[in-house]
Design a protein that fits this description.
22 helices, 7 strands, 3-stranded parallel beta sheet, alpha/beta, 4-stranded parallel beta sheet
Length: about 450
């Protein structure tokens, strides 16, 4: 008899995109039906995202009130509502490997998305908004930049954008900066620091800018570099990289992921060989190198090498603190902080390192919110999903309102702005690394 749940730590199997079975449509639908039937009998994940309510409604409204009564074409509705936050796998599902039922809902959805993309069943809008490098380079051209940012804020043009592409007129689109992080870094005066290594850190940090950190909020990356240099670390910004590949992964465009991997891993692996650790200012990008690429390419030595040298910024700072190498000479308290814990940071299984660091600051209290914001990078921009994204975010917004906090924050800057849209009170999130910079009074 199958066990009810598992007390063992979850494990993850390689994605298997290089096997014939992965691309077999008949086997895909057979596995979808098997897993959907398990989910229907469990229903623990109903509060996480749109996929599970969609699935359960399809089942409950079918003639048989079982999964076998759901039309196969309607399976795609469940797939489209999954934005690969991974929380079902990590926090809810009792049947993940090593349980014999071997349920990996997010990677099954990814397999379905990959087949859908391969079959050409992908909207132009989705191809466009996941082309973050192309968009960023275009949108940061000075004259175009002013026009694009103006269009994104104008109610009339947003309605036209909704009709033309399906970008929801109420979604809070990110601003593009002409003075990118790469440009700012060229003017940076290196501190020529030489930090001592610890058992887990070299003291030399290479910052992977990320598309968002380069084109949209370069201030976050700039603050990260300042905080790390303030801690005596030797820091450099990685040059000539591409998008980490997460947006294309969520689209199912695995060929684009492979191309980005080939460029980035070559650069990052060389840095690791030269003694550098790597951090990124965006949890999704960190997770891409820590989890997704190693599961796609488990036999590539350089991919594993980069995985082992990749850190969340606050994970890195806590490791330094455990070795008594963190600067704890804080000048300013931060008061009460309402802290949204980003999904892709939780999936890294590192614990709340951001809270640990911020609570080292005197007279500072951090109130964590462990719920998905529903943003997902692109999900909330899409006209057909925006209302669902806002609904998912509502419990987070309510917790922020009820906290009475002095500031709200999230390691995922996009999640922070999604909360901002839900609050609709004019308040702005401040990224945790910027809060730390404020506490240091740099």
């Amino acid at each position: 008899m199958a066990r009810e749940g598992s007390l063992e730590a979850p494990t993850r199997h390689p994605l298997g995109q290089d096997t014939a079975e992965f691309w077999d449509e008949e086997k895909l639908f057979s596995e979808l039906e098997r897993v959907f039937d398990i989910c229907h009998g469990c229903r623990r994940c109903v509060s996480l995202c749109g996929s599970f309510p969609t699935l359960f409604d399809l089942v409950d409204e079918s003639d048989s009130m079982e999964v076998d009564g759901v039309a196969k074409k309607d399976y795609w509705k469940v797939v489209d509502d999954c934005f690969l936050c991974d929380l079902c796998y990590l926090t809810k599902c009792p049947y993940v490997p090593p349980h014999e039922w071997n349920v990996d809902f997010p990677h099954l959805m990814l397999r379905a998305k990959a087949q859908k993309f391969k079959n050409g069943d992908t909207k132009l809008r989705d191809r466009l908004i996941t082309s973050t490098d192309t968009l960023g380079k275009f949108a940061t051209i000075p004259v175009i930049n002013q026009t694009m940012n103006a269009v994104n804020k104008n109610g009339l043009t947003r309605k036209l954008l909704d009709k033309a592409l399906g970008i929801h007129p109420d979604s809070l689109l990110p601003k593009y900066e002409t003075n990118t992080l790469v440009k700012r870094n060229k003017k940076r005066i290196s501190q020529n620091n030489r930090a001592e290594a610890t058992d887990r850190t070299t003291g030399k940090v290479a910052v992977f800018a990320t598309c968002y950190g380069n084109f949209n909020e370069p201030q976050i990356g700039e603050d990260l570099i300042k905080v790390f240099e303030h801690n005596g670390l030797e820091v450099q910004l990685v040059q000539d990289t591409q998008c980490c590949g997460m947006p294309k992964l969520e689209l199912g465009d695995l060929d684009a992921v492979a191309k980005a991997k080939d460029t980035n891993i070559k650069i990052l692996a060389q840095l690791v060989d030269d003694g550098w650790d790597i951090v990124t200012p965006v949890p999704s990008c960190t997770l891409m190198f820590k989890q997704e690429l190693p599961l796609m390419y488990p036999n590539e030595a350089d991919v594993i090498k980069v995985q082992q040298a990749m850190f969340d910024p606050f994970e890195y700072l806590i490791l330094r603190n455990k070795a008594d190498k963190l600067n704890t000479d804080f000048k300013t308290s931060l008061g009460k902080i309402s802290y949204h814990v980003a999904c892709h940071q939780r999936v890294q299984r590192i614990g709340m390192k951001t809270r640990e660091v911020l609570e080292l600051i005197p007279d500072t209290e951090v109130l964590p919110i462990e719920r998905c914001s529903g943003h997902d990078g692109t999900y909330t921009f899409k006209s057909e999903f925006h209302d669902t994204a806002m609904k998912i975010c509502k419990p987070v917004v309510n917790r922020v309102k009820q906290s009475g906090a002095d500031v709200y924050t999230s390691d995922c800057a996009m999640a922070g702005h999604h909360i901002e849209a839900g609050l609709a009170d004019g308040s702005k999130p401040i990224h945790p690394i910027s809060l730390l910079k404020k506490a240091y009074d740099i």
